[in-house]
Design goal:
The protein is mainly beta. The protein has one domain (about 1-260): Jelly Rolls (Sandwich), CATH 2.60.120. The protein is about 10% helix and about 40% strand. It has helices at about 1-10, 240-250, and strands at about 30, 35-40, 40-45, 55, 60, 65-70, 75-80, 95, 105-110, 115-120, 125-135, 140-150, 150-155, 165-170, 175, 180-185, 190-200, 205-210, 215-220, 225-230, 235, 260. Strands 1, 3, 4, 6, 11, 12, 14, 15, 18 and 19 form a 10-stranded mixed β-sheet that branches. Strands 5-2-7-10-13-16-17-20-21 form a 9-stranded antiparallel β-sheet, covered by helices on one side. The longest helix is centred in the last third of the chain and has 14 residues, at about 240-250.
Length: about 280
């Protein structure tokens, strides 16, 4: 795997694996994967699957955790920081006048967050091998290494600082990104079925290094391209796949909490609301 990482670092101009040098003056802090949505059967393990426990919304997972989705399971994660679940906060974070002037009362809201996010699809297994944050002046550097063992993930990685890195390992390859919305899907035997890029943000695309029969192939998958097993080079994604990406990532950009409202004229207290039930 070190050989793959070295090749990947070279392909990306040395930015990934040499990333920690500029931030070495500050100690790294452990990051967290915050579970913000669970659907169907989802579990996690701290000992590589020997013992599994049900995964619920609001759970914080550290490096060393492995997440499993059942055949009907999906889970959405925010990486790098522990995100406070709104259920734990009874008081509003911010109050402002309602946008519709004839409506009496007020609304409270939290802005949507800009974080690295992952959606695991049914029948997947994903390990968090490394997840740290380092303060570097005005910037926060994140160091993320995920291990997709089976299944499929959709991920959105915000534009990273030059000292940050984000790697996704698979049984037969490794991918590096720096500001990309992408999907990786594996075959049942762990080989890569497809890697597709929906959109890049200040990045050239996704660098993929694949090993097969002792040889390593390095590819750059750019905005709007897909690499499929059996094709030597990436191809444009289909309109159907683009529409699927748009649906997944439009959900991702919405706040995962809902608006809570109250009316001074009626109860002087908060009314109940479906808090925390959304995705990303």
């Amino acid at each position: 795997m070190k050989k793959l990482q070295t090749l990947l670092a070279i392909a990306m101009g040395g930015a990934l694996l040499n990333a920690g040098l500029s931030a070495s003056a500050q100690p790294s802090k452990p990051g967290f994967a915050t579970v913000i949505r669970v659907r169907g059967e989802v579990s996690y393990s701290l000992d590589k699957g020997t013992h599994k426990y049900p995964l619920v919304q609001g759970k914080y997972l550290e490096a060393g955790s492995t997440i499993y989705t059942g055949q009907d399971g999906e889970v959405d994660l925010i990486l790098a920081k522990a995100i406070e679940s709104p259920q734990a906060t009874w008081a509003p974070k911010r109050i402002s006048l309602a946008v519709d002037s004839p409506v009496r009362g007020m609304v409270t809201y939290r802005p949507s967050i800009e974080q690295n996010t992952v959606r695991m699809m049914p029948g997947s297994a994903l390990s968090i091998d490394k997840l740290t944050t380092t303060s570097s002046g005005a910037d926060t550097v994140s160091d993320t290494e995920l291990d997709l063992q089976k299944g499929s993930i959709y991920a959105s990685v915000k534009k990273l600082s030059p000292a940050a890195q984000y790697l996704v390992k698979t049984p037969t390859g490794i991918a590096g990104v720096r500001g990309t919305e992408f999907n990786i899907t594996l075959n049942d035997d762990g080989t890569i079925q497809s890697v597709s890029v929906y959109k890049t943000v200040g990045d050239d695309g996704l660098v993929l290094a694949i090993t097969k029969n002792g040889a390593t192939q390095t590819l750059l998958i750019q905005d709007g391209q897909i690499f499929e097993s059996g094709n030597p080079n990436p191809l444009p994604i289909t309109p159907e796949l683009r529409a699927l990406f748009q649906e997944v990532f439009s959900i991702e950009r919405t706040p995962f909490w809902q608006i809570v409202s109250f009316d001074y004229d009626r109860t002087q207290t908060f009314t109940s609301s479906d808090i925390g039930g959304g995705a990303f």
